[in-house]
Amino acid sequence: MVIAKLKRRENIAEYILYLWQLEDLFRALQFSPEAIFSQLAAPMQADDETKQEVFLWYMELIDLLKAEGKEVHGHLEHTLHLIGSLQELHEALLALPAGAEYRKVFTPLASELPALKARLGRAEMSDIEFCLRALYSVMLYRIKGDEAHREYVDDVMTLVSPAIALLTKLNREIEEGSFDLCKNEQP
Q1: What residues have CB less than 8 Å from 149, skipping those under 6 apart?
Q2: What are the residue ranges spanned by the domains of the chain?
Q3: pLDDT of residue 44
Q4: Neighbour-count burial for 29-67, b at 16+ CB within 10 Å, e otherwise
Q5: SS (H, E, C) the chain
Q6: What is the CA radius of gyration of the chain?
Q7: In 3D, which of 118, 116, 157 has the Cα closest to residue 135?
Q8: Which one has a higher pLDDT value, 8 or 29?
Q9: Residues 40-75: pLDDT tens digits?
Q10: I need a surface site. Which of 36, 96, 102, 142 has the fewest CB within 10 A?
């Protein structure tokens, strides 16, 4: 919960990826409260009260997953809503003069996206959801120590990571009021 609040405030993409990781961990632990406490909350470097708060937050997330019928797969509606907001920002940055810097960073990726989506059978997926899923898969490959997908990891980190990093930076600046999407040009 503490990590999630910090990530949400500082980097929305990391926050989404963190929640996806938690969803997978909950499923791997079969939603067992005992396992979730012993494996996720108890090892934390925190006082008992904080551990209990985090555990209760985990259980709230589990209740949401169950209520949304996503015990086996899928992501919380909350994260999908955030992705939708990022997609809207992405589209605005592609269209508005204030998005010139973003367009420069996104252009190398834009030409590759249709082929990547088609290859994975995900042509209908939004650009931003696809990019976040690519980053999540890289994270999983790294956790597993999977070197077989090295070229894929390099491609994602070279093409996707800079675009998502800039998008999340601009999102934070908009939330803080330091970036005006409607300005004709940015410094």
Answers
A1: 141
A2: 2-67, 77-176
A3: 93
A4: bebeeeebbeebbeeeeeeeeebeebbebbbebbeebee
A5: CHHHHHHHHHCHHHHHHHHHHHHHHHHHCCCCHHHHHHHHHCCCCCCHHHHHHHHHHHHHHHHHHHHCCCCCCCCCHHHHHHHHHHHHHHHHHHHCHHHHHHHHHHHHHHCCHHHHHHHCCCCCCCHHHHHHHHHHHHHHHHHHCCCCCHHHHHHHHHHHHHHHHHHHHHHHHHHHCCCCCCCCCCC
A6: 18
A7: 157
A8: 29
A9: 999 999 999 999 999 999 999 999 999 999 999 999
A10: 142
pLDDT of 186 reads: 46
Sequence-separated (6 or more) residues with CB below 8 Å from residue 32: none
What average pLDDT is seen over the chain? 91
